[in-house]
Design a protein that fits this description.
Length: 248
Amino acid sequence: MQTFIGAKLLSSKVAQPTAKPFEIYDSRLAGFTLRVQPTGVRSYYARFGRNRRYALGKVGALLPDEARERCQKVLGNVAHGRHPLHGFNGEGLTLGQFIDETYVPWVKANRPRTASNTLDKLKRHFGTWFAEPLSTITVERIESWKARRVNTGRVPTTVIRDIFTLSSVLRRAVRVGKLTDNPVRWVDKPRIDRRPKIRFLDQKRSLGYEQRSMHAMPKCVRLATRATSGDESVKENCFLPGPTLGTT
């Protein structure tokens, strides 16, 4: 449906929830969209490119004219090759809001076995970012976080797993139109040393190895070895080769 998105539309029956979600496209500003969910949540979006959209805010939090103005800024940024939220001074959907409203329901439904652990890791490692807009999570910021973790002695494989946990959230944000790109894609992964490790036996283990080797010898050879090492108790029980005939 295409019509002018304003206060009159919001109060009409046309923009009320139905059994299925639907969208209303603004007739004056191409890309300005109102999406109505069956739950009653109504949100403004800026649509651009091929099936790309960006959340502007919810009905009630923004007036239609305010949402339209935001949409114009977003579309202008996209047209000039800038990030959609460039120049918004920190405004926009925060990481914490997206996790609570979108990611938590999705991960619990699609990854029930690991959902609890994933959410715990997000809060533990990136909880200080929850109050900030998704647009502030840049490649440079993730690189800085990675460097601090590695420099404090964290194993590179652990750091990579933690980054991939964040990536799952940002990837979901791209899928639902909250972000245009996942910055984790451009982060250099920590180098992992895959060279084989050389382990040395300590003295005790080495002695045990020698004892096991002795037991693997024939009995006579073992006795001969002990006799030549000074063990008098076995000399009489073991034939030791003497000088051969004809020798002096």
